[in-house]
């Protein structure tokens, strides 16, 4: 079942090359996404060019996978150099990018050990396995009885175990039976977590700032209270920073805004610099140390190419430049978007160069606004039906940012 045939697509489809590719996608790709009708052929920095030569400002940045923009020269150089040396060994052997990347990532994040995987969902799955094993071996929870407390409206990925504790019916419907062992509490409600903790609780797993839910910042004190509860009750705090981390919110980690340290962090998206999938679980030796040989792994996790790019990502983040850009440009973004409240916009949420623009009730859908923006050369995407998610590359200039905000202002007014 397709939601829009190429003939009825509202933009771009008039031209031959675009419609040709849209038709191919429609015929041969599983319809698990509903992309805007734009076919990208090239990209650099904050700009993308489609197959018909139209240029677009990237206001989505691959859901924060492109925090450093498209094809950042340092990252491309690191990948190119590594392509000329060795790209894959499997974990059957050591290689010379692995230990250095693990050490550099641990130092950057103020942690002790690193487990390298590929996708974000794999990092979350890994954190769940580690937390359960920790509960049995260290905390002394009876076998197979460990519980993990999560938040409503969460997004942690798409595997069967992860959708087991999603509250999004579209993500779950017809994919059961589901994995037991998860308790859902309302996001932002620390008292509900307090009530949900039992002697069998292994971990509390939360996004410090919910991305897919609409760029939702939790109430002040929420993360701090979770940290206290976890300390009091001998429970691990797992922060899923796959989208919120690595400079997106103006700090290295979103938890840093609250001065909160998690026991485990899941990282992904920007960790691969927009070049390839790289994810990780980082934390203390005491927790990650529960894993023994053979208990967990991945053929591609921690491969030389991924590590070489990851090391270049760590070098970019270590300067603090992208965090600073996110803070400064983010303040500008939020000031300008704030002026739209009451003019087609009900609310603007977010932190740093990351915003959820809630369209006023009765206004056009987020999809419709995204389509209008695409027609005007700005690419972003709705999350939920009524929220526009804005997350440009952190390398964007102030002029480019203003150009995009101008287009958003126009699209909302029309
Ligand atoms: C994107 C995302 C994931 C899943 O990452 P994939 O690489 O798509 O598997 C998990 N958690 C959060 C918070 C995310 O934003």
From TrEMBL:
EC number: 2.6.1.13
Pfam family, any one: Aminotran_3
PROSITE patterns, per database record: AA_TRANSFER_CLASS_3
GO MF entry, a single one: ornithine aminotransferase activity
Keyword entries, A-Z: Amino-acid biosynthesis, Aminotransferase, Proline biosynthesis, Pyridoxal phosphate, Transferase
Pathway(s) per entry: Amino-acid biosynthesis; L-proline biosynthesis; L-glutamate 5-semialdehyde from L-ornithine: step 1/1
InterPro entries (UniProt xref): Aminotrans_3, Aminotrans_3_PPA_site, Class-III_PLP-dep_AT, Orn_aminotrans, PyrdxlP-dep_Trfase, PyrdxlP-dep_Trfase_major, PyrdxlP-dep_Trfase_small
Single biological process term from Gene Ontology: L-proline biosynthetic process
Cofactor(s) this protein requires: pyridoxal 5'-phosphate
Top EC class of this enzyme: transferase
Protein family per UniProt: Belongs to the class-III pyridoxal-phosphate-dependent aminotransferase family.
Protein name: ornithine aminotransferase
Higher taxonomy: Bacteria, Bacillati, Actinomycetota, Actinomycetes, Pseudonocardiales
